TrEMBL record:
InterPro entries: CTDL_fold (IPR016187), Glid_motil-assoc_lipo_GldK (IPR019866), Sulfatase_Mod_Factor_Kinase (IPR051043), SUMF_dom (IPR005532), SUMF_sf (IPR042095). Keywords: Lipoprotein. Residues 42-438 form the Sulfatase-modifying factor enzyme-like domain. This is Gliding motility-associated lipoprotein GldK. It comes from the Bacteria. Coiled coil: none annotated. PROSITE patterns: PROKAR_LIPOPROTEIN. GO terms for molecular function: formylglycine-generating oxidase activity. It holds the Pfam family FGE-sulfatase. Gene3D superfamilies: paralog of FGE (formylglycine-generating enzyme).
Amino acid sequence: MKKLLLSSIAFVVLLSSCGSKTKGELVGAQGKKWYPEKPYGMELIPQGSYIMGKSEEDQAQVLNAPTKTVTVRSFYMDDTEITNSEYRQFVEWVRDSIVRTKLAILADELGLGPEDGGIGDYAFKDADTTKLSAYDKYMLDMYSGIDYEGRALNLDQDLVWDTSEYPDEYYVEVMDKLYISEEESYNGQRTIDVTQLKYKYSWMDIEAAARAKGKGSRKDFIKQEELEIYPDTTVWIRDFEYSYNEPMHNDYFWHDAYSEYPVVGVSWKQAKAFCNWRTKFKNDDQKSKGKQFVNQFRLPTEAEWEYAARGGIEGGTYPWGGPYVISDTGCFMANFKPQRGDYAADTALYTVEAKSFAPNDYNLYNMAGNVSEWTDSSYDPNSYEYVSTMNPNGGGAKNARKVIRGGSWKDVAYFLQVSTRDYEYQDSARSYIGFRTVQDYMGVEENKPLNK
């Protein structure tokens, strides 16, 4: 019996060797062909080194940015700040996902499915278990539980927002709970209760896991996040005492007139959540097409931001190079506060559209002025003294002060300089802070033009 078993194994090995396309050579594991593409709305920032910090006079005497030569790897960066329109896409995705989940759960509790119509059209896709494989049915029975995790929502059925077209009373019940109460509404308008718009995701603290040197299990480094993601529109009032900014509070985020303006009122934590969603949104599409996942979108490090802002100009004070904020034709080069109290001297009272003024040599708009921008780095006034010279990233995860760069519409010219550092607390939102995202460069397909 033992001889027969060994003979069978040898025969299988022989057949495998004969049928192999590798001819027994070490050719590497054969994966899918990687076809990278330039992310939409981003520009490639080539790898390189530069002198980070204040090579010019530090007029404010903050002494927190001594010069240091560093090198950064290649990455893509958004050519503009994330706009209201782009952030609204995130908010609407979260809103729609919550509505679909609530509809599916109620349909499940009522035992309704697509054959029943009405709210049944929004039942979980696995409601018809006759179409499930044995494996899928087992996984649902074992792991779905009362929280319904792991069950697929029906994304094919369009949501109905017109109250006169709600399909049945159960649909009305779900939608009614999404909006603020009658007592809180006025002028006959009931708006969505934005406190319900929460995004939940998980991420792994790779740096902490690597430094743990095998201590602890993998799950110890997986972090769960859940937070409200609607921008804080009250910042337009709270940031400025004794100032009338109610129109900006009322209209800036949701009105189409401001769609192409940079989103504000977003905290560092909300910006991180947006990055996670953008990665998921792209990779869900990649998965549906049978393509390999792209790497994550994220906030830039402080060093990456400054390198990109300089646009390849060594020693430049501003993204356009040299030391003046007014061009040869007498026009301001960015949106900021040029003079004491005169916010409109540069033709803009508040923010301007994200593609305003001339871009720098990396084709990035408003790297100076308009809105300050969150970076991934924590703020430490002494960080330049100890950060690495390769892809530096200062501070620590427990430091709640996060670096913001670029200056804003309400700042004087000093804060527009590419080397000026500032910070804000990670859970704070301001009317003058926005963000843009980056993605690590992984190559481009040969002989394929880069499309926007």
